[in-house]
User: Fold these one by one.
Assistant:
Number 1:
Amino acid sequence: MAEGTAQVVHWDPRILRTRKTISDAFFNLLKEKPYSEIKASEIIERSGYSRQAFYLHFRSKEDLVNKIMDKHLSDFRDAVEGYIREHPNAGESRKEIRELHKTMFATVIADKLKSHAMHENECFAPFSLMFMNYLLNAPIPVPLFNYRQQRNLEYMNMIATYYFNATVGYWIETDFRMPLDKIARVYTDSVFGPGSSFPVSERTGVPFIAHENIRVENSVRKDSEKRSRTNPYRGNR
Amino acid sequence: MNTYMEALVQLMKEGQKISVRSLSEKAGYSRTTFYNYFESVPDLIEKTIMQELYLLMKTVDQALESENQNAQEIENAFAPVFRRILKHHDLYEAFFKFDCFSSFVSRLIRELEKRNMPMPKLNKLVFEDKLFARITSSYLFFGTVHYIVVYPVDLNARQTAHLFAKSFF
């Protein structure tokens, strides 16, 4: 999400609960049929809420997908940045780095249904790029070089990001067979293993092309689905 | 057909409005010609993704025909793959930059995971699992692509292949 975006924070547990029920209904439908065949009316029926309730929160099926992605990313960001605020020395030892990554993996296992749906369905494809762009610029320590003799910080940053995504993908595909502790260890040992030099400052300051024009497809397809990037939650009437 | 795909990438790069009219002007054909090949703009986008995916996977398959047991072999085998990507730099930049192309990323990774990408030795040290190795090697390949396309680095195909091979061994 662009810097300086005004975002409405919803703290009301009733609103959060309604949105959760509706998105869970959507995730369950995705297990049964492809995204293109799902109608808003089916999501409404499955969730048990009224049409009005659905359209109070979401403008359309596409809007629901976009909001799920935004919410997931902002939850992840809050978890990571909250952890770093509370643990200012998060990059100082292997153990600290592992604890930080445990927090990151914990957001994936927190909602297994959502993680499966987001990993397996193409309607969430924009998310992987949003997520990688966030990780590439996130204030997370990166190894300076590893025992494979890579000394290129930007490349190591890229490798660490993709390795994280690969580990998450593996974890989801094996249906979270490995406990949280172990998966964090597998990842951190691979990337920050013996021989790697760390910590390196923060991932910030890396030259990176900002993700522009984030949802071109919608504006190309239908004007009615054009979505406002300035305030993603403006759909509430 | 290719002219329209190039026109699409050019217009996106310039940040202009994408429509059948603007595409046809850029490509230098009439609007009727557009509809001979594509149903709509989303259809053009879809076909662009599918064509590039097909052509790239063909070069990857060729690279996988060799042994790929050590860094040098991986470097030799994958140099042509990176050559193709660097040649179509603008297209790949659009793949990373614009959301309408984002399904390219997930589809490519799915395709790579189906194949026997070279296994990172590293994983065998840390965690022995074929599936894990296959997934990470697919992502490592794609991470390298992301790196050369998006960062302002001046690497040729061989140097990139070297970087990629070194991330395994």
Number 2:
Amino acid sequence: MKHRGFLRWASGIILISTALMMPLGARAQLTIEIIGGAGAALPISIVPFVGEANFPLGISGVVGGDLTRSGRFRQIDGANIVPRPSTAEEVNISIFRARGADAVVVGSMQPLADGKVEVRFALVDAVKQQTLTNMVYTVTQAQFRATAHRIADVIYEKLTGELGIFSTRIAYITQQGKQYQLQIADADGDNPQTIVTSKDSLISPRFSPDGSRIAYVSFENRKPVVYVQSLLDGKRQAIANFRGSNSAPAWSPDGTQLAVTLSRDGGSQLFLIAATGGQPRRLMSSPGIDTEAAFMPDGESLLFSSDRGGSPQIYRLWIADGRVERVTVEGSYNVSPQPLPDGKGFVFVRRDSGRMQIATMDFQTRQVLALTPGPMDESPAIAPNGRYVLYAGQSGGRSVLAAVSIDGAIRQRIGALAQQVREPSWGPLQ
Amino acid sequence: MSRLLKFGLLVFAAMALVACSSTPDDEGAPVDERTVAAGGGAGSGADTGGIGGTGVSGTEADGRGNELKDPANILSRRSVFFAFDSYVVEDQYRPIVEAHARYLVGRPDARMMVQGHTDERGTHEYNIALGQRRADAVKRMMVLLGAKEAQIETVSFGKESPRNPGNDEMAWAENRRADIVYAGE
């Protein structure tokens, strides 16, 4: 079953600074295509909000788009019900049950005297015939989209028992010709903002745990250098710019330091460095490559890639005592570990017969599950609720973003026109 | 430290020079940061030197550029290519590495960067480490031949700067390499 939705992906929305002339990029568009998974989706009817037509941008459509793209819901037509319900009390459940809906969302948008708008919505469980939630928001028109994502989060959480991630942000790198950009957008791809533009490659963006800063690797100085940039004022600092290569930044859970890979003392080795820069502290010494560190949620250990055993495999280092344990045992190329938020497992990239796939591994059972078919999938970034993995894949010779549910059941291709998109990072819950 | 910084500045000034000469109509800094116009200096001095684009000119007036660029001179050959998954400098490239090592031995003030590259197979970050290993292999050979450690900085571009953007074995073979770039070029 295929669903096709469209996202506006206007690029180049930029704050104008007096000293910099920023180019306005051409408008591009992303297509999100859900592949499979809709069979288990919960049927939900989202009735257009009463009063919504008075505004250029509505809310119910954005809510519906969020829920549908999650793969957990499918929409049941809620239009053409007269009179149109806007509160839980006005919902005639038998009408919606007849249409096949298990849940109903209704709402209203009422202009206020101060120019703001009062947005109300209610979520009704049509099976149990009870109101699950009633909420009211007083917002400006500029906050409509953010409000819609909040509402989608509430609905998602009430009906699935898991945290919604529609209000989060993602970061990724775009490449158009020789222009590379680090962009940050809402989780649905809307509202993209360019925060770095370079003629040289950018890789490995990583949101800080509180979402206020982003670390990344830039090649603008003809070598890899790790920067930390504030998302509040755009100021940045080269926190690792040592002799040799500086790469693979990973935030500690408390946001005070980063693990980085430095070659300054020979080889590629792991170091800890303060988020504000300073002298790095070497984590361990190995004769091979150590890189791609990622902290476990408790901050006490980290996963990393190393070829100390002959082939690239994933290892775990306990920081306090320096103990190292090999984690992946099968296959000849297992890299890019990203721990799950509950610490019970991790997502990684495995290469098998030249095919690169996103996979998960459970620490307890050691079970490996391939989530994607490949052949060139990499850079997994896990949603803060642990339910989805954003990653970079190939389509038509170009790099595109895609998302897959943590059980591999629901996959979305996110196609971009005229540019390459890769290296995603998923920001924290807001 | 200050020597490192000086080398860094020299390299970046050289980069600016190269950038200017190769793309004369290309103006402005290669990197724009939102709201960071003056704040670009928030990093170390070497960074802003690298992105400033207002290059020093005439640094090659000593004439040594000729020797390094003369197509008839082996010193003009700057790339060492590697087999898949390999970091061994093959025999056919030894004369190039040896010539550059001799050059460094004869000019203790000369500085170079060896830039390692990989093909597109593998992840962005892991390939940085693989490219680093190729650059280190070239450096190790030069040091064994008498060049000083401090003369050679090894860095990696991983798969970020493919010479051939193709996706076949021919392109991959061109991209598995280490490039030699002198400070002042």
